[in-house]
Specification:
This protein is an alpha+beta fold. It is built from 4 helices and 12 strands. The protein has a single domain, classed as Roll (2,3-Dihydroxybiphenyl 1,2-Dioxygenase, domain 1), CATH 3.10.180.10. The longest helix has 12 residues.
Length: about 210
């Protein structure tokens, strides 16, 4: 069985400036600027979130080509998502790191998307990305990532006292969702609750316990 753990989680924003300002109020920290994703025309801010994982604030990059040649990840091209992000930053996706991405895909009972290779400097990573930019089960199922050998990227990021305490998944049929998570080998990484489809992250922050959804 592959060794799977939470790698990072993505909070979407209409703009990085909007996200930074809103999260400073909510979390009590300024999320530091990260980098650009040329293949997706997006950019981000990142910080450590405990246990070799990181918090990612992501938005469409206004200085990048308007059409990257494919749908952006995390539903950022979806008009529904864009309207929601105008209101405030939103939880979009959780990403699970694995040491055997091919095995995860082979065992998956659902379509996770194509495997796309990304590079930045001397590091590369393979990530599951649906071609249409959608998220499996609207983000309740994670994306999967496999990094090239080397230290986890979070080790080079700032630790501002924000840690991920839990990933919460709400779904009308918890048993069915649990069965899928077991097949993916990630059932130990999230808490499932009955309710309307919702992804949220429980964080410990300088402002206390915070839920981002």
């Amino acid at each position: 069985m592959p060794n799977n753990k939470i790698d990072h989680f993505a909070i979407g924003a209409d703009t990085l400036e909007q996200g930074i300002l809103a999260l400073k109020t909510t979390l009590g920290v300024d999320v530091p600027r990260g980098g650009k994703h040329d293949a997706m025309s997006t950019h981000n801010c990142v910080m450590q979130s405990g246990n070799e994982s990181f918090f990612e604030l992501i938005a469409i990059d206004p200085d990048a080509p308007a059409d990257p040649g494919r749908a952006r990840w995390f539903t950022l091209d979806d008009p529904v998502t864009q309207v929601r992000l105008l209101e405030r930053p939103r939880a979009l996706c959780w990403v699970v790191g694995t040491d055997d991405l091919d095995a995860v895909i082979a065992a998956s009972p659902v379509e996770l998307g194509e495997v796309v290779l990304f590079t930045r400097g001397d590091r590369s990573w393979r990530l599951t990305v649906p071609k249409d930019g959608s998220l499996p089960m609207q983000g309740l199922l994670p994306a999967f990532i496999e990094w090239s050998p080397g230290p986890h990227p979070s080790t080079g990021q700032q630790d501002l006292g924000v840690t991920l305490e839990a990933v919460h998944l709400r779904y009308p049929d918890p048993a069915a969702l649990s069965k899928t998570l077991v097949a993916l080998g990630v059932d130990h990484l999230a808490q499932i609750h009955e309710g309307d489809m919702t992804l949220s992250f429980e964080l410990n922050t300088p402002n206390g316990s915070v839920i981002l959804d």
